[in-house]
Amino acid sequence: MLLQEFRLDGRVALVAGGGRGLGRTIALALAEAGADIAVAARTPHEIQETAEQVRALGRRAVALRTDVRVAREVQEMADRTVAELGRIDILVNSAGLGLEKSFMEITEEEWRQVIDTNLLGTFLCCQAVGKHLLAQGQGKVINLTSGLALRGIEKGAAYCASKGGVLQLTRALSLEWAP
How confident is the model over 28-52, as pLDDT tens digits? Predict the structure, then answer.
């Protein structure tokens, strides 16, 4: 009876970073709760595998090869989700990249890869999907962050900075979108 309160039948969830790990686990849990799933990530075989697992649960699924660091690809991801599944009700930003390296050894390219994947990717996904959610007048955004958003860790400067940014972005969006 209690689980009926958590059913997502008729809802569509877009899971960025849903090809493996925590993103895949979340995508499958949402499908088990009744949601149709758009799975987005950079690796085609991983998103196809997740989409097949979602379909095996009796839900609709679409696999969208997307680099969350590229605005055009992110907008296409959102638009294709709506075109193929009819709407977006839930956005899960789980695409992420870690880097364990001493601060003085991090190259600018490595720094940008982590920041662009974790923070810029979350920003771009929220903007692209936010257009649809705001037009519908409802929806949920789930941005994955880390305890390291609040405390540093040795050899984790880029990751900690990116997740701290995601935390503050999420707080700011909650004030704008759900006052």
Answer: 999 999 999 999 999 999 999 999 9
- Catalytic annotation, pick one of 159, 160, 163, 165: 159
Domain residue spans in the chain? 2-177
Q: What is the reported pLDDT for 3?
A: 58
Burial class (CB in 10 A: 0-12, 13-18, 19+), 62: buried
**pTM, full prediction:** 0.93
* CA gap 167, 121 in Å, rounded: 13
Homologous superfamily assigned to 2-177: NAD(P)-binding Rossmann-like Domain (3.40.50.720)
**pLDDT tens-digit series, residues 71-101:** 999 999 999 999 999 999 999 999 998 989 9
Active-site annotation holds for 139 = no
Could you tell me the CA-to-CA distances from 25 to 29, 32, 106 in Å, in that order?
A: 6, 11, 31
Please give the helix or strand (H or E) that residue 36 lies within, else none: strand 36-41
